[in-house]
Amino acid sequence: MRTITWVKMAAAGGIMCIGGPALIYYVTPTEEALFLKYNPELQKRSLERRKEKQEDFDNFVGRLKEYSKSDKPIWAVWEQDVERKKQLGIQQELDRRRDEAAEAEARKQEMRSSLR
C-alpha cells in the first residue's frame, strides 16, 4: 500500500513539475503574435518608437556596466550619480537665472539711458 502511494505521489509531482511549465510555454503567445493583435495605429507607433527604446535600453545597460566597475554596490553608485546630476542641474539653473537677471538689468540700464 505504501509503494502505491509513493508511486502516485511521484507521478503527480512529475506531472506538476514538467506539465506546469510545459502548459505555460504552450499558452504564452510569442512577441510576434502579440504584435499582430495590435491595431494598425499601435503597430505603427510601436515601430516608430522601437529605435528610441533600443537606444534608451543601450544607454541604461552602458550606465550599469559603468556603475559595476566601482567597488561599491550598483545602487549606491546610481544614487551618487543621480545626486551629482541633480547638483549639476541645480547649478545650471542658477547660472541660467543669473544670466537672465543680468540681461534684465542690462535692459533696465539701456531703457534708463535712452530716456535721458
Q: What features would you highlight for this structure?
A:
116 residues; mainly alpha; 90% helix
Major β-sheet profile: none
Instruction: Give the rounded overall mean pLDDT.
Output: 89
| Computed structural class | mainly alpha
Share of residues in strands = under 5%
Distance between the termini: 114 Å
Quick synopsis:
The protein is mostly helical and 116 residues long. It contains four helices and no strands.
Care to describe what's here?
The chain has a domain of 44 residues. By secondary structure, it is an all-alpha fold. The longest helix has 42 residues. The N and C termini lie far apart (114 Å).
Write the layout of secondary structure elements.
Elements: H1 2-27, H2 31-37, H3 40-68, H4 74-115
